[in-house]
């Protein structure tokens, strides 16, 4: 084993929104009994969703797949207003586990719409968070992903624009898109506060710090996790080899050849026990384990109102 030192990078792993969402599913099963249905994966992590399936959660992509009168939980990524109407029509008992920081963007978009603004949303097409936000007012909202798209964007009123962003974007890449938007539309307004969530920003900052001390970084997270992929991007932008893995079994030994120091982080939806399994694996091979604490976090969100009422 060439790896001599392993840095456990903090902050990593579950954010407050993911904690809340996972706890919501577990608490709903405890209160109402299995099964409970979840619109989309509650969070984008295979290990987490598999564990919840074993407890009695059933994940579906369409509300029409849920039996009438059942418990329906909306995932942490948020939903479009028409999904709520579909759930109401099927007489589902709904519990909203949308991350409050995503809900904040929905509220901002609605307010800007009432003020007559035209909205540019920076996000990833097809991602459930983007689908939910775009569904609030699709008639006045434009989705873009890259600076090139900002340069070719056609709007009705260049003097009446505001931009919003997906919560899980790369901070560095988002800056490039915002710069392109401001160059094209100098009057465009920013949201009242940064839409990229605290956990995404903090984990990317920690990765950048760790990149100064590591030859390679492993990020625990699933392939469909936007924030986990952005952590890999952040490391690679610092010139460090980085790989996204769901678990220990996905490590390839050729990644480690010629490397002596390794950093381990985890996306905001990845469970801590996998990080500890990785640490134990390298420790058993003779590596020393050190901690790199970059930023302290103490954010907590209250559980959905529907569970308190129950």
How is the secondary structure organized here?
Elements: E1 5-10, H1 16-32, E2 36-39, H2 46-55, E3 57-60, E4 71-74, H3 81-89, E5 93-96, H4 100-114, E6 118-122, H5 128-134, E7 141-144, H6 147-152, E8 161-165, H7 171-184, H8 198-211, E9 216-220, H9 226-237, E10 241-245, H10 253-256, E11 261-266, H11 272-284, E12 288-293, H12 305-309
Parallel strand pairs: 1-11, 1-12, 2-3, 2-4, 4-5, 6-7, 6-8, 9-10, 9-11
Please explain how this structure is put together.
The chain is α/β, with parallel strands linked by helices. The protein has three domains: 5-14 and 197-293, 4-hydroxy-3-methylbut-2-enyl diphosphate reductase, catalytic domain (Cobalt-precorrin-4 Transmethylase, domain 1); 16-98 and 302-309, 3-Layer(aba) Sandwich (Rossmann fold), CATH 3.40.50.11270; 101-184, 4-hydroxy-3-methylbut-2-enyl diphosphate reductase, catalytic domain (Cobalt-precorrin-4 Transmethylase, domain 1), CATH 3.40.1010.20. The chain contains twelve helices and twelve strands. It has helices spanning 16-32, 46-55, 81-89, 100-114, 128-134, 147-152, 171-184, 198-211, 226-237, 253-256, 272-284, 305-309; strands spanning 5-10, 36-39, 57-60, 71-74, 93-96, 118-122, 141-144, 161-165, 216-220, 241-245, 261-266, 288-293. The strands form three sheets. Strands 10-9-11-1-12 form a five-stranded parallel beta sheet, sandwiched between helices. The chain has a four-stranded parallel beta sheet with strand order 3-2-4-5, with helices on both faces. α2 links the parallel β2 and β3. α8 (198-211) packs parallel to α9. The N and C termini lie far apart (53 Å). The mean pLDDT is 96.
């Amino acid at each position: 084993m060439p790896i001599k030192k392993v840095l456990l990078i903090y902050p990593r792993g579950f954010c407050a929104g993911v904690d809340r969402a996972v706890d919501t599913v577990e608490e709903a099963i405890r209160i109402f009994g299995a099964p409970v249905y979840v619109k989309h994966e509650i969070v984008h992590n295979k290990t987490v969703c598999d564990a919840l399936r074993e407890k009695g959660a059933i994940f579906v992509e369409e509300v029409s797949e849920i039996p009438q009168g059942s418990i329906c939980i909306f995932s942490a990524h948020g939903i479009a207003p028409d999904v709520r109407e579909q759930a109401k029509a099927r007489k589902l008992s709904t519990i909203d586990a949308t991350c409050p920081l995503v809900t904040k963007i929905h509220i901002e978009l609605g307010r800007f719409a009432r003020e007559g603004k035209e909205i540019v949303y920076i996000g990833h097409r097809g991602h459930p968070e983007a689908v939910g936000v775009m569904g609030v007012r699709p008639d006045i909202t434009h989705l873009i992903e890259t600076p090139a798209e900002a340069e070719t964007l056609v709007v009705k009123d260049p003097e009446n624009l505001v931009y919003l962003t997906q919560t899980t974007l790369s901070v560095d890449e988002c800056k490039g898109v915002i710069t392109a938007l401001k160059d094209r539309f100098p009057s465009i307004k920013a949201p009242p506060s940064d839409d990229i969530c605290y956990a995404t920003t903090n984990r990317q900052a920690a990765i950048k710090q760790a990149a100064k001390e590591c030859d390679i970084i492993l990020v625990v997270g699933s392939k469909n996790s936007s924030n986990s992929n952005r952590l890999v991007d952040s490391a690679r932008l610092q010139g460090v080899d980085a790989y996204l893995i769901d678990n220990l079994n996905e490590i390839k030994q050729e990644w480690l050849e010629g490397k002596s120091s390794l950093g381990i982080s985890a996306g905001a939806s990845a469970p801590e026990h996998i990080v500890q399994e990785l640490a134990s694996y390298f420790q058993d091979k003779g590596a020393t384990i050190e901690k790199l604490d970059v930023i302290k976090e103490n954010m907590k969100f209250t559980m959905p109102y529907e569970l308190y009422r129950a």
